[in-house]
Amino acid sequence: MPKRILSGTVVSSNSNKTITVDVTRRIKHKLYKKIIRQNKKYHVHDEKNEFNVGDVVSIIESKPISKLKRWKVISTEGDNSWFKCNLIFLLQTILVLEKYNA
């Protein structure tokens, strides 16, 4: 199964090597069919302590790092991360499809 890639805003960077990222999703309500925004905060591993509050970052699922951390930072949104995230996702999808077809 490919690893999920999400994009969100850093809301806290007080901890050492850890940031908190707020990810906003738009979903359709099951009963009322209205588009609503859903927020969730993730604890993300930041190896170099390089991100600050307000930065928009991309994160990827990883193996458990600590009790709460299961995500790592890929990059900031300013350095072609959309292209990188899509490329990583496509490569993972191709590998999964090849595994099932083999």
Name the CATH homologous superfamily.
Answer: Nucleic acid-binding proteins
- Helical content, roughly? 10-25%
Can you count the beta strands? 5
* Measured distance between first and last alpha carbons: 15 Å
Numbering strands along the chain, what is their spatial order in the largest sheet?
Answer: 1-2-3-5-4
* Helical stretch tally: 1
CATH third-tier fold name: OB fold (Dihydrolipoamide Acetyltransferase, E2P)
Cα-atom radius of gyration: 15 Å
User: How much strand?
Assistant: 35-45%
Q: State the major sheet.
A: 5 strands, mixed, barrel
Oligomer class:
single chain
Query: Overall pLDDT, averaged?
Result: 87
| Global outline | globular
Low-confidence stretches: none
The secondary structure category is alpha+beta
Element order, helices and strands?
Answer: EEEEEH
Question: If you had to describe this structure to a student in words, what would you say it looks like?
Answer:
- 21% of the residues lie in helices and 41% in strands.
- It is α+β, with helices and mostly antiparallel strands.
- The chain has a single domain, classed as OB fold (Dihydrolipoamide Acetyltransferase, E2P) (Beta Barrel).
- A 5-stranded mixed beta barrel has the order 1-2-3-5-4.
- The radius of gyration is 15 Å and the shape is globular.
